[in-house]
Amino acid sequence: MENLPERLAASGAIETRIKLGSISGGKVLDIAVGSGDFIDTLMSVLKDYDCFVGIDISRKDLESAKKRFRGQPVKLMEMNAESLEFRDNSFDTVSMAYSLHHLDRIEKVMAEMQRVLKPGGTLIIQEEFYDDEQAEAQKTNILQHAWEAQIDSLLGETHNKTFVKQRIVKIIRSLDLVGVEMFESTHPVECLFCENKFRCDNPKSEEEIERSIREINDNLKRLKKIDDLKIRIRLQRTGEVLRERNRKYGNAHPPVLLAIGRKPPQL
Ligand SMILES: C[S@@+](CC[C@H](N)C(=O)[O-])C[C@H]1O[C@@H](n2cnc3c(N)ncnc32)[C@H](O)[C@@H]1O
Fold this sequence. Notes:
Order of helices and strands: HHEHEHEEHEHHEHHHE
Distance between the termini: 40 Å
Oligomer: single chain
Bound molecules: S-adenosylmethionine
CATH architecture of the largest domain: 3-Layer(aba) Sandwich
Helix content: 40-55%
CATH superfamily of the largest domain: Vaccinia Virus protein VP39
Shape: globular
Structural class: alpha/beta
């Protein structure tokens, strides 16, 4: 891919793109589809595909995905990933992005994803992570995410802080897959297609910092819904520290791990 910002070009996202570009998706099921970002990415990178089914437990997120994919071969359904309403072996590809840390019962969802995947079919999981090697701007993002996850949890939504890399690797290794490959990159593959890629590649871009501070301000407003005053004050202070941290160090996407493996063919 020509004309990429420097950090993105060196990020590892191109290797991930090449791998995904070798896969024929067939009938693809995207778990925890949200507003559909990962379907959009797969449409751009897969070698080819027949159609997509996206499921999510949240009706609100599905509504925006429905508008986004109107007229395209994408079916969207409200469903809990812990008990998928599909037959065994019914999809050629099953994917999930940025959702492991949103799940209540990861093992149950992993078992369901494998059950509905055809023998020989492809499983794709993408998740952001942290380890000991993050730059300060990435640490801002990870700390801010942990703060937001704490607010979500207090307001009743399952949301955990960013997982450490080893935890994700352990989950992938526990699956009954063959030919597993893992791709690590400082920028996710979708950055290659993003119209803001030049702006966003600079962790100290004023527009990006302003966007991040707007997110903090929106979350600060949500604190009103938390009854416990002590917790509210603590989270308020953390929000203020995060605003300063954004200004000082900037904010950058944490690294991502994309794992690909196949369900063993039936003998
Ligand atoms: C960060 S969003 C996913 C974003 C999307 N995959 C993307 O790439 O942009 C996490 C999603 O997980 C969904 N979710 C959480 N638990 C779920 C479950 N048990 N079944 C289905 N969806 C679930 C949430 O509703 C939310 O839309």
